[in-house]
């Protein structure tokens, strides 16, 4: 018999055999389902574009504020630190009041703060804006993932997860293209990148405003209206069910934070300082480093979509493990070359692995989450992991200050930070941790979490199925149930560690 932490690493045969063909499922989606998925994807893309505006502008910000790389990366750290606050606030609002308006106001707040960042005149003002900006950004991921995935059939959620998560890479790609073609051509310079991001975020808010609420909330609100419950009663129930969820799933909460800490170190450690690494340690021009970043994000998009699709057939955890192993295999290609072509190839391959593993995360977190808290639980776990890993860029910058190498520029030898070695060590260690924490964790592959009660219904915190769904689900397989037995089994795997 396989060790307990290896059980269910691959979906059971009957699950794979009974699943409908993906193309058939996609062909049956309504335009509302497509639109809600696009809305969630676009919101997450905006979040990424806005975040990486700083990473791509490090050199310009150094000149603008006369600060070191280490000082500029403080803005990245502060943004990541405050994102957990936004995840809690907007996650609770979403699980209590619905997906639509909390996400709309979240995107509007992000747009306002991003616009303001383009007008700052001092470094202190810039840090203040980016700190507040972190609160706004923190709510986006959990709300976007819930909006995009909970309205889709179970068979489509794997590949949808990959597409959704790679909104992160697409956002980075859009920011890099803007930085490459717009920023050098306008008098506003780096500020134009922030203003453009603000406009796109406002557009995403407008798109979500046009679309209806998620079906699960429309059903729950209709049931509550029929029973005569008012807002005060629903808020009281929400608080009670939140306490019940924390009591029941506290160990799962800790596990999710550890998982996301590893993943965020992996992501930020391989991306936040990457443009600076290419220019400072490899001697590439700003233009070439931006192009290499674009190529790397093409690899990220390909990896995320492929992994999301693959996870539907071989399981979430096994797909993650395979792609993290690819990360380890490609570290030498990522840090050893000195030419643009080889470095670009390394960027493509390393991001195929990193974001391939990440492509599974939206659906993995959604399926392991307490079903009634699909915005709060994944969002808070994600952003606390972000908070713990918030110093990634500063760790690498400090490492580069202390670990030096030389390059030949213009016929003379120049002493530069050895970011290649620093990043290689960091990513190697983090990859090993992610493999370990993934193996020991739970997996609720194919969970129909949309059948559960919402957080403002009695029983939501205990993972109970909605009354109207329970009647038609008596013969449903145990592996697809969210009534509690599967959740207990999943957590027991974590408890044994």
TrEMBL record:
Instruction: Give an example GO molecular function.
Output: secondary active monocarboxylate transmembrane transporter activity
- So where does this one cross the membrane? 21-44, 72-91, 103-121, 127-149, 169-187, 193-211, 250-270, 290-311, 318-336, 420-441
Which subcellular locations apply to this protein?
A: Membrane
Q: Where is the Major facilitator superfamily (MFS) profile domain?
A: 36-445
Q: What domain of life is recorded for the organism?
A: Eukaryota
Q: Name one GO biological process term.
A: plasma membrane lactate transport
How does it sit in the bilayer? Multi-pass membrane protein
One Gene Ontology cellular component annotation held by this UniProt entry: plasma membrane
Keywords recorded for this protein, A-Z: Membrane, Transmembrane, Transmembrane helix
Q: Which intervals of the chain are annotated as region Disordered?
A: 452-497
| InterPro entries in UniProt | MFS_dom, MFS_sugar_transport-like, MFS_trans_sf
* Main localization category: membrane
Indicate what this protein is called per its UniProt record: Major facilitator superfamily (MFS) profile domain-containing protein
Q: What is the scientific name of the source organism?
A: Psilocybe cyanescens
Q: What is the lineage of its organism?
A: Eukaryota, Fungi, Dikarya, Basidiomycota, Agaricomycotina
């Amino acid at each position: 018999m396989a060790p307990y932490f290896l059980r269910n690493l691959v979906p059971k045969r009957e699950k794979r055999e009974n699943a409908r063909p993906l193309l058939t499922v996609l062909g049956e989606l309504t335009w509302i389902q497509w639109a809600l998925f696009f809305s969630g994807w676009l919101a997450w893309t905006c979040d990424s574009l806005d975040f990486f505006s700083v990473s791509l502008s490090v050199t310009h910000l150094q000149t603008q504020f006369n600060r070191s790389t280490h000082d500029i990366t403080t803005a990245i750290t502060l943004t990541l630190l405050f994102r957990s606050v936004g995840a809690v606030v907007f996650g609770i609002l979403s699980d209590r009041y619905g997906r639509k308006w909390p996400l709309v106001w979240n995107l509007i707040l992000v747009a306002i703060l991003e616009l303001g960042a383009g007008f700052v005149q001092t470094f202190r003002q810039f840090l203040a804006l980016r700190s507040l900006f972190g609160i706004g950004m923190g709510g986006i991921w959990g709300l976007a993932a819930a909006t995009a995935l909970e309205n889709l059939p179970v068979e489509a959620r794997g590949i949808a997860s990959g597409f959704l998560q790679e909104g992160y890479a697409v956002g980075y790609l859009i920011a890099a293209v803007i930085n490459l073609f717009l920023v050098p051509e306008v008098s506003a310079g780096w500020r134009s990148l922030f203003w453009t991001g603000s406009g796109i975020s406002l557009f995403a808010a407008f798109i979500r405003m046009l679309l209806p609420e998620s079906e699960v909330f429309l059903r729950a609100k209709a049931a509550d209206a029929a029973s005569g419950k008012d807002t005060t009663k629903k808020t009281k129930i929400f608080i009670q069910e939140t306490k019940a969820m924390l009591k029941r799933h506290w160990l799962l909460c800790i596990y999710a934070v550890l998982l996301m800490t590893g993943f965020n170190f992996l992501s930020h450690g391989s991306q936040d300082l990457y443009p600076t690494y290419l220019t400072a340690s490899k001697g590439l021009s700003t233009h070439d480093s931006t192009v290499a970043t674009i190529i790397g994000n093409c690899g990220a998009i390909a990896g995320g979509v492929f992994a999301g699709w693959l996870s539907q057939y071989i399981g979430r955890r096994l797909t993650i493990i395979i792609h993290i192993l690819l990360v380890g295999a490609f570290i030498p290609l990522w840090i050893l070359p000195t030419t643009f072509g080889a470095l670009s190839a390394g960027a493509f391959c390393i991001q195929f692995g990193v974001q391939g593993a990440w492509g599974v995360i939206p659906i993995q977190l959604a399926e392991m989450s307490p079903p009634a808290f699909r915005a709060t639980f994944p969002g808070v776990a994600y952003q606390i992991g972000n908070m713990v890993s918030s110093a990634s860029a500063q760790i690498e910058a400090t490492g580069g200050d202390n670990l030096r190498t030389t390059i030949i520029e213009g016929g003379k030898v120049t002493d530069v930070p050895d970011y290649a070695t620093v990043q290689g060590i960091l990513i190697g260690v983090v990859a090993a941790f992610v493999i370990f924490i993934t193996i020991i964790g739970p997996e609720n592959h194919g969970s129909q979490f949309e059948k559960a009660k919402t957080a403002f219904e009695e029983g939501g915190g205990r993972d109970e199925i909605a009354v109207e769904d329970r009647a038609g689900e008596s013969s449903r397989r145990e592996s697809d149930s969210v009534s509690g037995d599967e959740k207990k089994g999943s957590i027991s795997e974590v408890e044994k560690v």
